[in-house]
Amino acid sequence: MPVRRLDPLLIDRIAAGEVIERPAAAVKELVENALDAGARRIEVAISAGGRDLIRVADDGSGMDAADLALAVERHATSKLPDGDLSAIGTLGFRGEALPSIASVSRLEIRTRARGAGEAFQLTVEDGVKSEIAPSSHPLGTRIEARALFAATPARLKFLKTDRAEAQACHDAVLRLALGRPEARFVYATDIGSGFDWPGGDLRERLRQALGAEFLASALEIDETREGVRIAGLIAAPTFNKPNGLSQFAYVNGRAARDKLIAGALRAAYLDYLPRERHGAAVLFLSLDPREVDVNVHPAKAEVRFRDAALVRGLIVGAVKRALEGALRRAAAPQALSSLTAPAWMPRGSMAQRGLAPQRWDWRASPANPGLSEPAQAAFTAFDAPSARPEAAPAESDAPLGAARAQLHGNYIVAQTRDGMVIVDSHAAHERIVYERLKRQREASGVERQILLTPLVVDLAPAAVAALSEAAPILARLGLVVEPFGPGAVLVRETPSLLAGADFAALTRDLADTLRAEDGAEALERKLDHRLATIACHHSVRSGRHLKPEEMNGLLREMEATPGAGVCNHGRPTYVELKLADIEKLFARR
């Protein structure tokens, strides 16, 4: 079959498939162009999930007639003034967004440049450009793309439902809006819900986009190392999600879905969340543009760092330090929102409501704390002088106060100087034991056991090479392997904590993940998971009654333990109620 040159329109449609794979991609490209033009107000409207209409209007710098004519030509851009691809400072730079969208839709552009006396209009249909014509339009640009993919029915056939595509467009605008909180974003759709977010600071934009609950649990981070800065807000572990969709990362202002950043966040939350839960975060990474390659993916969705280890270490360290510092206090401030006064509580005195209190029996009250004899097994209070613990002044002033009672065999009630604390003794002791085991591992290394018969694991030569290269790191984590011919490794020693594990399967998994630059971390996660299991089984069991000195001892250990605000499963270990909060519950405030 002879070689022939493709039709220019077909070339454009093939290129469009690399950049515009769905309506959300077109929305993303158009909004990025508006932001690069300096827009402070961006309005996005879609219809039928973006199939029928995508409209993006902005108040940016606009274009004159000459720029408008070039804007729909392939590889024409205003964003590389010196042609240097190693120092890209804009969101878009390829010069393919508008011609790609124009090749798969009916495109109309109206624009007016700053300081210009007139506006201009251009339409493109089936790859054919109209003449530049005068138009009426305020400062900025409005772009409409109608009948997206009508000329490419194969692509149209594989789009999802209108509702799914509308949600993807919503998410694309939300992600860009989080990165530019100073700009106003308006999003309108005939399916789902829209929004109108005035410009403001980052915290206000987070409240608008992610809700007040995220903001209530947010912890600020801001650290710099060797010219790389990480800043933003992360959520306490008690605010977690079943997936990573609530993790937003920006590299030099560009929204990026980067595996390295996602892996660093997963590693930082490792001690505080179960493996199937994910932390929420909005992170801004700033570094020299020459230290990051944003030209990896046609849709500019991925980046590549020159020094990946530096970036990963900075993120993991900054997030861990923020979590450890914050989790010495109660990790569930939002818990108060679930406390409301009982519906039966009168608003005022009983006399005011015409009730007769003289025959009222407190034993029949719904608020009866259960101090009758049969119920005392669930409540241990220090009422008798001989049983009441005399709290030292230091204990009364301590962050978690002095123990006063144990409820239902699991919850410790402690009095602080300005309120009270309720502690889940099992969850708290679980965290204490886990941190203790980790410190022992770091001090003396991972305890290893020698296999009576070394285990031979057959692997591909590339996998053997990956394990051999990482052998010193794996040995520090308790797994001793060595090459055994061209297609196998010999496992001689294994971590004692993983006794009974399938080490042949573990070794194969490590070989695969090592080739993905995550193998050592995968073994460390397994070790940490086993430590967490041991901590859970060796902690104070629910239902065990503690002596006063044991309760106070537990409180003091919690105050000295990093991350004591949550257990290993991400649940809060204690909730603090200030006296003012308690008074509000009883309508005293």
* Tally of domains: 3
The first-to-last residue Cα distance is 86 Å
Mean pLDDT: 79
CATH class of the largest domain: Alpha Beta
Key phrases:
Ribosomal Protein S5, domain 2, alpha+beta, 23% strand, Heat Shock Protein 90, five-stranded mixed sheet, 3 domains, 589 residues, formyl-coa transferase, domain 3, 18 helices, single chain
Would you kindly provide a written description of the structure presented here, covering whatever features stand out?
Strands 1, 2, 3, 4, 5, 6, 7, 8 and 9 form a 9-stranded mixed β-sheet that branches. A 5-stranded mixed β-sheet has the order 10-11-16-13-14, with helices on both faces. Strands 19-20-21-22-26 form a 5-stranded antiparallel β-sheet. The protein has 589 residues and is an alpha+beta fold. It folds into 3 domains: 8-82 and 91-197, 2-Layer Sandwich (Heat Shock Protein 90), CATH 3.30.565; 211-326, Ribosomal Protein S5, domain 2; 334-340 and 375-589, formyl-coa transferase, domain 3 (2-Layer Sandwich). Helices cover 34% and strands 23% of the residues. Helix 13 crosses helix 15 (503-515).
Summarize the structure.
The protein is α+β, with helices and mostly antiparallel strands.
Secondary structure blueprint with pairings:
Blueprint (H helix, E strand, L loop, with lengths): L7 H12 L3 H14 L4 E7 L5 E6 L6 H7 L25 H7 L2 E7 L6 E7 L2 E2 L3 E3 L4 E7 L6 H5 L4 H18 L4 E6 L5 E3 L4 H9 L1 H5 L1 E8 L2 E8 L4 E2 L5 E5 L2 E2 L3 H10 L9 E2 L1 E6 L5 E2 L10 E2 L2 H19 L52 E3 L11 H5 L4 E6 L3 E6 L2 E6 H20 L3 E11 L2 H9 L1 H6 L3 E4 L4 E8 L7 H13 L3 H19 L10 H13 L13 E5 H7 L4
Parallel strand pairs: 1-8, 13-16
Antiparallel strand pairs: 1-2, 2-7, 3-4, 3-7, 4-5, 4-6, 8-9, 10-11, 11-16, 12-15, 13-14, 17-18, 19-20, 20-21, 21-22, 22-26, 23-25, 24-25
Helix pairs in contact: 1-4, 2-6, 9-10, 12-16, 12-17, 13-15, 15-16
